[in-house]
Model the fold of this input.
Amino acid sequence: TLFDPGSIAMMRNVLAGRKTFGMVSAHSGAPQLKGLIGTTAEIFEYGELAPEPDIGITGFKIKAKGRQRFRLQSTHTDNSGVKLGLVKMLPEISLTNPFNSSRLRSCDRKGDRKSLERNLRAFSPMPSYIYFMYDSQKLVSRVHTSLHNCGWYTDRGGSGKIPTSPEELSWWLAANLPIQDTWKYHLLGINSDIQRLRVELCILATIQVLVCRRCYNDLADQTDIFSMSAEGPQGAFVNPGGHLHETLTVY
Done:
């Protein structure tokens, strides 16, 4: 929700074009904006808000979804006070199995994954479990098992469906894990879904208790978290003052 006239004017200009703008974290810890990693956001819903009795100004509400990462190259401010930036889009790197090019292609006709794994192990000088640590489908299966053990979802096809694509699952976890903004910024900077999933598995295995970030008192166990919507256990809400709050529901 926006109340600043300059920001509202900027969003109107965005809506008149491609409906896409860029966002960078103000809590990344960097002393300057140059070099920060952000993401493009595509607006999919917007509307005017009636004036609030307490503040007496009209707000402008938007809903947007992150689309692509970028690195901020430089910034400048235009005459209206809106900050503009030059960005470089960051690609998502997809890693393939290192033995795909040297496998026995005649065995591909069997079609099942176990046959393919036996085929690839024949060329491996190291134990197969080392390669499974970097296998995207194995990582997806481990994440699903961890979330199931946490009790976040009672079944994988229920009201809260967990993504099965490695890339989608890695971003879903980054959005829903109850972690600090600095950790989320670190995940945003990783350019491979395999590496992102490995980091997120470590987070799932490490964080067992939710504590207050100010007094460090225990609030809930990880298994106490449950989902209230199909989007996941964590939701973002904006109060009438324009402040964003991320919420979790626990037993």
The first strand starts at residue 20 and ends at 24. Residues 136-150 form the longest helix (15 residues). The chain is about 30% helix and 25% strand.
